[in-house]
Specification:
Pfam families: BKACE. InterPro entries: Aldolase_TIM (IPR013785), BKACE (IPR008567). GO terms for molecular function: 3-keto-5-aminohexanoate cleavage activity; metal ion binding. Its cofactor is Zn(2+). This is 3-keto-5-aminohexanoate cleavage protein. The chain is of the alpha/beta class and 312 residues long. The protein has one domain (3-309): Alpha-Beta Barrel (TIM Barrel). It contains eleven helices and 14 strands. It has an eight-stranded parallel barrel with strand order 1-2-5-6-9-10-11-12, surrounded by eight helices. α1 (30-43) links the parallel β1 and β2 (47-50). α1 (30-43) runs parallel beside α3, α4 packs parallel to α6 (151-165) and α7 (176-187) packs parallel to α8. The longest helix has 15 residues, at 151-165. It is globular, with a radius of gyration of 18 Å.
Length: 312
């Protein structure tokens, strides 16, 4: 099997959406993020998508000093591609969101391809006891929050990190319109291939997690970019994770797991780690006779600058 036919597994380790009261297994401290990221890489994740958390109470933080407590350790212990968020959280300014990516100059960064309503506020109704005072207003407050990424914002990120440091991007597309925005930036010459599209399903405010929508996103990307010119990956939020990822792989796509995207490993069963989810999707894929891409194969497939060309 050629490298291009292999499946890249990405793992989003902690994110900025879930809170400590939702799962005791959500990694929050630098040590926990380090351990779960390394375990996920050892389980088969070629790409590690990383956010930072305040070590005291687990709230999302953009502080480069916190990132520095785990990112270099993960790099030293694995060969995985380290992918740093530029999304941060809906509460962060652009300056905060880019503080660590500008310092770290990583191989990859994520980038949300549009401003959008992005919320899990209904989840607050399911929590009976909150561990920290910030959590409930944080989740409930999402009902009146917008994730901002205007065309000017996206252009700034692409130029600052892409042109400035040779960073490639995980283009997070939460709806069909985001694919057209991505095509616009390609037409403007601001994006160079190969393009890695992370299509996302099941977030309130974005496209739903219906299997038909996965087909719509795939065929739309084919029409806009030509299948040979991009890599397709799928993120299914919550309970939609494994079914949509299996469908995506059968359609020639790549997959993303991790406790940022879903806290569960099965119906009503919390995942004890990100590695649990990596192992599960890897088993499914291998039983379907698919091969998993190594980090070096993923670097070739995505045209990355290499592990040694970063600043951490």
């Amino acid at each position: 099997m050629s490298t291009t036919d292999k499946v890249i597994i990405s793992c989003a380790v902690t994110g900025s959406v879930h809170t400590p009261s939702m799962s005791p297994y959500l990694p929050l401290t630098p040590d926990q993020i380090t351990e779960q990221a390394i375990d996920a890489a050892n389980a088969g994740a070629a790409i590690l998508h990383l956010h930072a958390r305040d070590p005291i109470d687990g709230r999302p933080t953009p502080d480069p000093k916190v990132f520095d407590q785990f990112v270099p350790r993960i790099k030293a212990a694995t060969n995985a591609v380290i992918n740093i968020t530029t999304g941060g959280s809906t509460r962060m300014t652009m300056e905060e969101r880019l503080a660590y990516p500008i310092q770290a100059q990583p191989e990859m960064c994520s980038i949300n391809m549009g401003s959008m309503n992005f919320s899990i506020h209904p989840a607050a109704r399911k929590i009976q006891e909150w561990i920290h005072p910030w959590e409930k207003p944080y989740i409930e407050g999402m009902e009146d929050m917008i994730f901002r990424n205007t065309f000017k914002d996206i252009k700034y990120i692409l130029q600052t990190l892409g042109d400035g440091f040779g960073t490639k991007f995980e283009f997070e597309c939460y709806d069909v319109g985001h694919l057209y925005s991505l095509a616009h930036f390609m037409d403007e010459g601001l994006i160079k291939g190969p393009v890695f599209i992370q299509s996302i399903y099941g977030i309130l405010g974005g496209i739903g997690a219906d299997p038909e929508n996965l087909s719509i996103m795939r065929t739309t990307a084919d029409r806009l970019f030509g299948r040979e010119n991009y890599r397709f990956s799928v993120l299914g939020a919550g309970r939609h994770q494994m079914p949509l990822l299996t469908m995506a792989a059968i359609m020639g796509g790549n997959v993303r797991v991790g406790l940022e995207d879903s806290l569960f490993i099965g119906k009503g069963q919390l995942a004890h780690s990100c590695a649990d989810q990596v192992r599960k999707i890897r088993r499914i894929l291998e039983e379907l006779s698919m091969e998993i891409a190594t980090p070096e194969e993923a670097r070739i497939m995505l045209g990355l600058k290499g592990k040694d060309a970063v600043n951490f």
